[in-house]
């Protein structure tokens, strides 16, 4: 039954303003228009039914008239509802198509922005394209809003209410144009300077504590916002790089396919080589794009970005000049002709023949030469993630460091913790010391009497110290007085982690606890098959836990419910780290893994062939890991590309800290400073300090421009900055 036929139902023109406004200039589907009409007609018959009931109550119509009209109206409403359901299903399919179209346009928008960023297309052209695409997205948003309102509404009045309540609202976060990368870097630099200046004024007593804390909070919030925007652009660039790499891989596969087609005689050698040359040109173009993108992504200051842009301009000018000289070659002046006599001709012919014969022999006997001929682009491709192709002159921390003071407490110390203008030192026998930053005085404050093998945790008002007997002590961070104490099942060798006042503890017997410090209550407790020594990771509403057997768990940290797990089947004791959506962890078999935090899938793995006993460190697209042989490796965070290595000259890398572009590394004997953006396969050594007074036991701890090291026999070493190279 065609209910929208005028012979059955009579419709009046829509006079609802928002619908008319948003219908204007749009080509809507017939399903959407019919749904509007049917919803309006449904409201009319529903109203008629209500009026009919009123007439019956007042006695203005007979019972027979009431029953006949009610049956007629009910039948028509049922017919309308039936057709509405069919049309809504049809409109839902159209909504799905519109959403896909919108996703494609947003993808185009993102690519256009990045192409403009790397200079692939001119800025003015990019702006015009972005404006055009954005207009299309806005139009789709309006249409989607109308269609979704029509599908979800059961009456015309509800449809009108949805449009009146929120006719159309842009997602400001998505549609707001990102500021230029350079401007963000400039703002970040300004905020950093403001923070440093504020710290200096506070130290000099020119700013009181309240003003200092208020301004510092304001600056930090602004800085965090800027860093989020910078990281957002970098993530976009990473995604674009991944897409280009996929396209490049397709071309590389196409080259191999073309080689096979030549061999089977489907195409001639000449045709095949022309096709391969075109593929190679495209691959080189992709390489250049990726190269530019990575250089921009790794820029950490406006000056670096300007240098990259200037370098690109210079390269572009040189390329144009080369092309020009190729089009208009300059010929040398004519020389006197050299007449080749028979003997000379014979010698030249012999040399040329020998050359070709030699080349032919090499092609047959040398696999390397054969590979070069099969894939000629390999010898020209860039080592895209090697730092020598990315940044040649980085800005380092403008200090070198020298040993200022060595103090001893007579027993092994854990990693120091900051207490404002003091340090907290905890020894392996449970003694708590308070030390000045200059280590002038070290004062014993308390002793818990238990044996400790993990670092204390500072969570603002509280200090958490845990021992091998499963005791957890909560101290006041102001005066180091003991506030609370609980006991859990199993030795605690992994440093606890916290989110606010909730502390997460993982024991060697496999017990995982969520403990609220303020309420002094255990929120939940989960028993895992194996225990661990690795510190858990908190990210959003999830908690990631690595056990000694190499199983990585993902928990809902609010409820203690396991979401997913991935079994690596390699023993682990070093704590994992989180960086840009991935978890990086090392195993005792010498394997570095990257695991996606959302899907818990292994992104990549790479073997170092020596146990990895300490946590990796990641910054600016590089993950650094040190093995038991004392060698440091820097890998790309995107794939297994090796950026550089460095042999520290002593066994067992104990830990790595990255400050700006300086990689601080400790082994058992010394502290080394390496250039994160080193220009060769071996990292550049900036400086090193040998610690002859004891065997180092922990990573370097950097606080207030000082570096602190601790030794096995209880010494703490202060290295102070001095102006220098």
Number of strands: 32
> What shape does the CA trace take?
globular
Helix content: 40-55%
In the sheet with the most strands, the strands line up as: 1-32-31-30
Largest sheet: 4 strands, antiparallel
SS-based class? alpha+beta
**Separation of the first and last Cα atoms:** 88 Å
Number of domains: 3
Q: Strand content of the residues, in percent?
A: 15-25%
Uncertain stretches of 5 or more adjacent residues: 1-25, 166-178, 327-338, 354-398
Q: Which architecture of the largest domain does the CATH hierarchy give at level 2?
A: 7 Propeller
| CATH hierarchy, class of the largest domain | Mainly Beta
Task: Please characterize this protein's 3D structure.
By secondary structure, the chain is an alpha+beta fold. The protein is built from twelve helices and 32 strands. The chain has three domains: 17-175, no CATH class; 181-318, no CATH class; 399-723, Methylamine Dehydrogenase, Chain H (7 Propeller). The strands form eight sheets. Strands 1-32-31-30 form a four-stranded antiparallel beta sheet, with no helix packed on it. It has a four-stranded antiparallel beta sheet with strand order 2-3-4-5, with no helix packed on it. A four-stranded antiparallel beta sheet has the order 6-7-8-9, with no helix packed on it. A hairpin with a 4-residue loop joins strand 3 (422-426) and strand 4. The termini are far apart.
């Amino acid at each position: 039954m065609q209910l929208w036929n005028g012979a059955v139902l009579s419709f009046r023109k829509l006079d609802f303003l928002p619908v008319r406004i948003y219908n204007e200039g749009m080509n809507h589907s017939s399903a959407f228009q019919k749904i509007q009409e049917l919803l309006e007609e449904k409201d009319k018959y529903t109203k008629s039914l209500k009026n009919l009931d009123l007439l019956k109550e007042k006695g203005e119509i007979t019972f027979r008239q009431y029953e006949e009209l009610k049956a007629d109206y009910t039948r028509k409403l049922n017919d309308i509802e039936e057709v509405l359901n069919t049309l809504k299903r049809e409109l839902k399919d159209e909504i799905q198509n519109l959403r896909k179209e919108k996703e494609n346009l947003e993808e185009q928008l993102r690519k256009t922005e990045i192409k403009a960023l790397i200079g692939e297309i001119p800025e003015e052209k990019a702006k015009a394209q972005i404006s055009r695409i954005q207009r299309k997205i806005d139009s789709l948003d309006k249409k989607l809003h109308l269609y979704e309102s029509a599908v979800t509404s059961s009456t015309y009045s509800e449809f009108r209410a949805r449009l009146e309540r929120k006719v159309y609202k842009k997602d400001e976060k998505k549609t707001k144009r990102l500021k230029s990368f350079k401007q963000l870097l400039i703002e970040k630099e300004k905020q950093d300077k403001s923070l440093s200046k504020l710290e200096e004024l506070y130290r000099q007593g020119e700013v009181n504590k309240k003003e200092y804390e208020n301004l510092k909070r304001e600056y930090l919030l602004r800085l965090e916002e800027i860093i989020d925007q910078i990281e957002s652009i970098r993530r976009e660039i990473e995604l674009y790089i991944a897409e280009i790499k996929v396209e490049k891989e397709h071309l590389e596969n196409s080259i191999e396919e073309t080689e096979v087609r030549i061999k089977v005689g489907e195409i001639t050698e000449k045709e095949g080589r022309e096709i391969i040359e075109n593929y190679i040109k495209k691959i080189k173009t992709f390489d250049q794009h990726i190269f530019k993108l990575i250089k921009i992504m790794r820029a950490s200051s406006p000056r670096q970005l300007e240098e990259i842009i200037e370098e690109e301009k210079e390269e572009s000018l040189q390329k144009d000049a080369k092309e020009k000289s190729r089009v208009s070659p300059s010929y040398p002046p004519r020389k006197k002709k050299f007449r080749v006599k028979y003997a000379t001709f014979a010698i030249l012919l012999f040399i040329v023949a020998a050359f070709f014969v030699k080349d032919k022999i090499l092609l047959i006997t040398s696999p390397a030469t054969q590979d070069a001929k099969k894939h000629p682009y390999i010898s020209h491709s860039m080592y895209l993630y090697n730092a020598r192709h990315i940044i040649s002159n980085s800005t380092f921390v403008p200090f070198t460091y020298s040993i200022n003071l060595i103090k001893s407490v007579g027993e092994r110390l854990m990693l120091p913790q900051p207490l404002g203008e003091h340090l907290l030192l905890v020894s392996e026998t449970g003694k708590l010391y308070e030390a000045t930053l200059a280590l002038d005085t070290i004062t014993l404050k308390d002793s818990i009497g238990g044996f400790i093998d993990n670092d204390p945790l500072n969570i603002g008002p509280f200090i958490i110290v845990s021992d091998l007997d499963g005791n957890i002590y909560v101290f006041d961070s102001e005066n180091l007085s003991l506030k609370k104490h609980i006991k859990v099942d199993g030795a605690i060798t992994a440093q606890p982690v916290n989110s606010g006042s909730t502390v997460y503890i993982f024991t060697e017997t496999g017990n995982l606890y969520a403990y609220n410090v303020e309420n002094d209550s255990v929120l939940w407790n989960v028993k895992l098959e194996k225990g661990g020594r690795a510190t858990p990771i908190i990210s959003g509403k999830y908690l990631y836990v690595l056990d000694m057997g190499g199983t990585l768990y993902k928990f809902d940290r609010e409820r203690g419910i396991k979401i997913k797990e991935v079994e690596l089947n390699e023993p682990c004791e070093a704590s994992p780290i989180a960086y840009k959506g991935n978890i990086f962890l090392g195993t005792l078999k010498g394997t570095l893994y990257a695991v996606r935090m959302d899907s818990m899938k292994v992104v990549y793995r790479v073997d170092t062939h020596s146990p990895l006993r300490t946590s990796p460190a990641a910054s600016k697209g590089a993950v650094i890991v040190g093995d038991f042989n004392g060698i440091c490796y820097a890998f790309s965070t995107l794939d297994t590309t090796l950026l550089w290595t460095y042999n520290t000259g002593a066994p067992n890398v104990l830990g790595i800290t990255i400050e700006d572009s300086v990689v601080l590394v400790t082994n058992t004997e010394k502290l080394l400073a390496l250039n994160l953006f080193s220009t060769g396969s071996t990292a550049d050594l900036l400086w090193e300090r040998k610690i002859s007074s004891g065997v180092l036991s922990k990573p370097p701890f950097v606080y207030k421009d000082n570096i602190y090291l601790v030794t096995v026999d209880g010494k703490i070493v202060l290295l102070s900055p001095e102006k220098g190279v």
